[in-house]
Amino acid sequence: MQINKNYKNLAQSYLFSTVAKKVAEFSQKNPDKKIIKLGAGDVSRPLCKAVTDAMHLAVTEMGTKEGFHGYGPEQGYDFLRNKIKNYYKRRSVELELNEIFISDGAKSDLGNILDLFDKDNTVLIPDPVYPAYVDTNKMNGRNIEYIDANIENEFLPLPDKNLKGDIVYICSPNNPTGAVYKKSQLELWVKWALENKALIIFDAAYECFISDDSLPHSIFEIEGAKKCAIEFCSFSKIAGFTGTRCGYTIVPADLEYEEMNLNKMWVRRQTTKFNGVSYIVQKGAEAVFTEQGYAEIMENIEYYKNNALVMANTLEKHGIWYTGGIHSPYIWMQCPNNMKSWDFFDYLLENVAVVGTPGLGFGKNGEGFFRLTSFGTYEGTKEAMERIDKLLK
Amino acid sequence: MQINKNYKNLAQSYLFSTVAKKVAEFSQKNPDKKIIKLGAGDVSRPLCKAVTDAMHLAVTEMGTKEGFHGYGPEQGYDFLRNKIKNYYKRRSVELELNEIFISDGAKSDLGNILDLFDKDNTVLIPDPVYPAYVDTNKMNGRNIEYIDANIENEFLPLPDKNLKGDIVYICSPNNPTGAVYKKSQLELWVKWALENKALIIFDAAYECFISDDSLPHSIFEIEGAKKCAIEFCSFSKIAGFTGTRCGYTIVPADLEYEEMNLNKMWVRRQTTKFNGVSYIVQKGAEAVFTEQGYAEIMENIEYYKNNALVMANTLEKHGIWYTGGIHSPYIWMQCPNNMKSWDFFDYLLENVAVVGTPGLGFGKNGEGFFRLTSFGTYEGTKEAMERIDKLLK
Q1: How many angstroms away from the CA of B142 is the closest CA of chain A?
Q2: Which residues contact A180 (CB under 8 A, 6 or more apart)?
Q3: Backbone angles phi, psi at B171, to 5 degrees
């Protein structure tokens, strides 16, 4: 049996394991110091009441002969697809139910969608970036070219007429930088994709953090995008589903390349290699879009946004350049005094016991930058910023 | 953008849609006739109390600050992996925790595992077979060769010295035939795989139906299998999780091909393209293995087995050849009077309003055979058999 040799070309992912190791060592040497973690992308607020109420009802149903649900549709139940259809309508995006696929999370579908594409495509990936975009393509042996995101383009790279490629990844609001594309900027990407017969993989996992109504939440707010884009979203950040697992993927009904319909190909993939998301979880996700549910999750989002504001205020006070925070749970800051990413990591850990993520871990253009997340508690975030404020004085 | 052209080579899957269409037509013409469905592989008994109790507790936890669980380990929580480790111990199979991967169902992992293998492998698939084995490999463009399963080998094909191949699928107890390999027969397959440096994909989804203690539930009951096999199992049939979604995959720690460790490759695949199974679902699955839970699920299995017995008795009374039923929820019967699969389907539907699955839908060797499932209600199964008994007199 021959193995997939592309796995030999995968770099080991050292970022979070190195962070964990350094934190463990520091903790052992300084057992009295209270470490505050602003590093991971995981949420801290519990599921809201509307969601747990709905899941309790679903669990009870599943224990009765009349209410039991066996195999569900691989593409998800219509009760949830209808809610998502309406959610897009608020932004004037019209979707058909058969364009909406319920997933067990954006990460799964972002990887699995690659099943539909030939190995011989050139993939454009911004640097810095969410590392899974790179590794999932390397597993198939695709050629990757990086697009520079940097302080000059405010970490929002745009296509120019010389840019060539078949698949491009856009994450807006961005992980790790928190930068958000404007409508006019996404229009340039859609124009480029249509002209180049390329496909946009649009990661909208953080759309719920956008504070300015004029900024697009979905690539499908852009005219023509239904002919050149697939969008991935998740309940992880909007409703704290990181451990509950539910997301959705939008594959337009008319999306075609080389005379093959991608929506139909994805149906074939999912009905062959997936069996749908738990009924109980889908009932929980449905409750996110009830009046009560939406009010409750928005309270959590405001909570995290307030944490971001606390961080942003501290950075501004010290004249430190940053992006993100306002429309994103992430703050992407320049390390003060031209420090390198890992040096600043050590500096914060050793002096004030605060943990963030070194920008270099997201790509070469991340060197000299640092990511902070607002997913912690208000008390922890406030204390961390007070410590950093004192340190930088 | 170039699409994966292998999708063009996929045959449309007409089996269950054709069945549904014929049933709908019959129903419209005969609105007064009560149709009994013994066709689908879905369960009908609700989740047991131990499972729903555990899930209620988990849902409540997820709504509290202290009990909330965010991202879990992609490989699954140790509380569930430990229970599976113990479950294998009852059959004297020793597993390490890191050999056990919790999945959202056997179907997902049976497809996803192919990520680890080169396109240039020859895949051996028994005919008749669960159609997903074929399609998932065709999606990658692998060469498939079929192994004949038929009445002569009791639908349990064995390797001979001329057999060549890199990957072989074994499903025991089998879907669709319900046939179960003996230990001595699986030993031949393990010997063949080791000699040919081939890999066995062992689908154990129906192991819980085995009634005879001498029959193997796991390929790892066979010496040497940890050097040549991966096993897939599921809570769908043992505990009615078809709509709740949980399974597990065993990748031995020492499984190596071409100097690459498959366990490590699978960890890399899962941490990159998967984010674990819902905490709530894993807590439900854990409860399957409590004393109360196990007693409750076994009651359901006995219920289905009794249905199978009712079917078997009817077939024996009429001298109809069949396999399965005793160690499986499926009965695989020869169509009486040399009828073809679809003719017998029509004959049953039109004369006694009973629905089964034509064997031809599972491969060419299925022609002349018919699958009945025991997952219906006792009352429905009994009535269907009374109708068939009268019809065949």
Answers
A1: 12
A2: A156, A172, A173, A174, A210, A215, A327, A328
A3: -120, 115
Q: How far apart are CA B376 and CA A51, in angstroms?
A: 32
Place of tokens 């769908």: B236
Asked if residue A13 has pLDDT above 90, the reply is no
Model pLDDT for residues A347-365, shown as the tens digit of each residue = 999 999 999 999 999 999 9
Strands B322-324 and B167-171, bridge-based pairing: unpaired
Q: What is the dihedral of CA A70, B100, B260, A105, to 10 degrees?
A: 50
Chain A / chain B CB contacts < 8 angstroms: 238
Orientation angle between helical segments B341-352 and B15-29, nearest 10 degrees: 30
Q: Which residue of B has its CA nearest to A166?
A: B1
Burial A342-379 (b: 16+ CB within 10 A, else e): bebbebbbeebbbbbbbbbbbbebbbbbbbbbbbbeee
Test A1 with B265 for CB contact under 8 angstroms. no
d(CA A101, CA A136): 20
Which residues 93-122 of B have a C-beta within 8 angstroms of A?
104-105, 107-108, 110-112, 115-118, 120-121
Q: Cα(B183)–Cα(B222) distance, rounded to whole angstroms?
A: 7
Residue B209 scores a pLDDT above 80: yes
Model's pTM, two decimal places? 0.96
- Residue B13 pLDDT greater than 80, yes or no: no
Kindly list the distances between the CA atom of residue A352 and the CA atoms of A26, A308, A321, A337, in Å, as whole numbers in the listed order. 11, 19, 21, 17
Yes or no: domain A5-47+292-392 corresponds to CATH 3.90.1150.10: yes
Asked if A67 reaches chain B (Cβ–Cβ under 8 Å), the answer is yes
**CATH T-level assignment (fold) for domain B49-289:** Aspartate Aminotransferase; domain 2 (3.40.640)
- Going by CATH, does the domain composed of A49-291 fall within 3.40.640.10? yes
Distance between CA A51 and CA A61 in Å, rounded?
Answer: 15
Query: For chain A, which residues make up each domain, given as ranges?
Result: 5-47+292-392, 49-291
Q: Does B8 touch chain A (CB under 8 A)?
A: yes
